[in-house]
Design a protein that fits this description.
The structure is a single chain. This protein has one domain: DnaA, N-terminal domain (GMP Synthetase, Chain A, domain 3, 2-Layer Sandwich). The protein is 56% helix and 18% strand. The protein starts with a helix and ends with a helix. It is globular and about 35 Å long. The relative contact order is 0.18. It is an alpha+beta fold and 103 residues long.
């Protein structure tokens, strides 16, 4: 069986030129692109005109991810098989995780 990550580039290339669809796809592929450790502490929030906004659990995670933004951009684009993400903005957004941790 072919790995999911091998299928993503052809899927992304076949997407219609619709910003809403591209946004949903990029956001949904954050977790598999960056891996579980980073994904557990961060969530992709929005994607517009090449800019991906990512929220983190706290300011410490924000600082960590800020220091590797170029690597995260490269990881996303490598996973997508296309240079779609031009910049990643990292924000501390603990409120995104509060509800998840209560369950």
């Amino acid at each position: 069986m072919e790995r999911f990550s091998n299928l993503v580039p052809s899927f992304v290339r076949s997407l219609p030129d619709d910003p809403e669809i591209v946004e949903k796809v990029v956001i949904s592929l954050w977790r598999p692109a960056v891996g579980e450790a980073i994904a557990e502490a961060s969530r992709a929030q929005s994607f517009t005109k090449g800019r991906l906004v990512v929220g983190t659990k706290d300011k410490n995670w924000k600082a960590q991810l800020d220091s590797i933004v170029p690597e995260l951009v490269a990881k996303m684009n490598r996973f997508l098989g296309k240079s779609i993400v031009r910049y990643i903005e990292i924000e501390a957004a603990p409120e995104m995780f509060a509800v998840l941790e209560k369950d």
